[in-house]
UniProtKB/TrEMBL annotation:
Residues 237-322 form the 2Fe-2S ferredoxin-type domain. Its cofactor is FMN. Pfam families: DmmA-like_N, Fer2. It comes from Amphritea atlantica. It comes from the Bacteria. Keywords: 2Fe-2S, Flavoprotein, FMN, Iron, Iron-sulfur, Metal-binding, Oxidoreductase. The lineage of its organism: Bacteria, Pseudomonadati, Pseudomonadota, Gammaproteobacteria, Oceanospirillales. This is Oxidoreductase. Residues 4-113 form the FAD-binding FR-type domain. Coiled coil: none annotated.
Length: 322
């Protein structure tokens, strides 16, 4: 998000909804927020307290889980990540009711395919959040759907009771801490022609559903997924911008995109997770450690382009053609 796109909001409620998940309600400083489409996300900018080099800003994408038509507030849920660069720790430990944050306008890379005959939703842990924003419209359209929600109650089992109450037999919950597992192949087989499948959760769940779909001959166009893995930490390096000659230090826990943004260099971006292709940058020199799932193997091998939201230098220096 460019700085002019940023919307100032205030945290008006925080709920611990599972041992590792907190839910945050965000309200605008003034006026109303824009309605959004089901499956949309926002980017939250967090500036940690501290001064000088201790001051750190993170920008993480979170799915909106509130009713898309409710412009008074947005709600997001944040899982405390095991390998957090600091963003989820900041949200869990430093954000309080009254904290002011800046967010991007909503963007959507995971909208339902409304032409589908039926919608089958697979959620893993905090991956339930985009589906919570699907539900009002699925219900209002009287669309045929079923939700399969996998979690560990000792860590991430938020909203399961409400969902079961709201959806009845339309929601199947699988608590791995109780030994309950979802038989993905059994769920997928026997669905009517024209069913679309949606997955949000850990990479392993996405891979498992995609592999099952592949084995069953489900067309790729009927499979939709959203990973919520953002940038991961790495070794620090220096990036040089060839057009201005400027040099920026990319810290171990900052992404290259965040570093560029902190220097007021706006790079278009949507997912901040290496999947949408928006942030592509030309590389003039240096080796890249590609961590995205957008570029083809050939593009990665060419060494000429990279996705700075997740990818980093493979060495201690990189020159970008910007
Ligand atoms: S912002 Fe989507 S790939 Fe980088």
């Amino acid at each position: 998000m460019s700085n002019i796109d940023q919307i100032p909001v205030r945290v008006t409620a925080i709920k611990q909804v599972a041992p590792l998940i907190k839910e945050f309600t965000l309200e605008p400083q003034d006026g109303l927020l824009t309605p959004f489409s089901p499956g949309a996300h926002i980017v939250v900018e967090m500036v940690s307290t501290g001064s000088g080099t201790d001051k750190h800003s993170y920008r993480n994408a979170y799915s909106l889980m509130s009713d898309p038509l409710d412009s008074r507030q947005y709600r997001i849920a944040v899982r405390l990540q095991d390998d957090s660069r600091g963003g989820s720790v900041y949200m869990h430990q430093q954000v309080e009711v009254g904290t002011q944050l800046k967010i991007s306008p909503p963007a959507n890379l995971f909208a339902p395919e409304w032409m589908a005959k039926k919608h089958v939703l697979f959620a893993g842990g905090v991956g339930i959040t985009p589906f919570l924003s699907y539900l009002p419209e699925l219900q209002q359209r009287q669309a045929e759907f079923e939700l399969h929600y996998m979690y560990r109650s000792k860590q991430t089992g938020a909203y399961s009771a409400e969902l079961q109450e709201n959806l009845g037999s339309g929601c199947s919950c699988y608590d791995a801490d109780l030994g309950n597992r979802c038989d993905i192949a059994a769920v997928m087989s026997g669905q009517p022609l024209g069913t679309h499948f949606y997955i949000c959760g850990p990479e392993a769940l996405i891979d498992a559903v995609r592999a099952t779909a592949d084995g069953m001959g489900v067309p790729a166009s009927a499979i939709h997924w959203e990973e919520f893995a953002g940038a991961k930490p790495g070794l620090p390096f220096v990036v040089e911008l060839s057009r201005s000659g400027a040099e920026l230090a990319v810290a171990a826990d900052s992404s290259l995109l965040e570093t560029l943004e902190s220097a007021d260099i706006n790079v278009p971006n949507l997912c901040r997770a290496g999947v949408c292709g928006q942030c592509v940058c030309d590389v003039a020199e240096g080796e890249v450690e590609h961590r995205d799932s957008y570029l083809s193997d050939r593009e990665k091998q060419s060494g000429q382009v990279m996705m700075p939201c997740v990818s980093r230098a493979a060495g201690d220096r990189l020159v970008l053609d910007i």
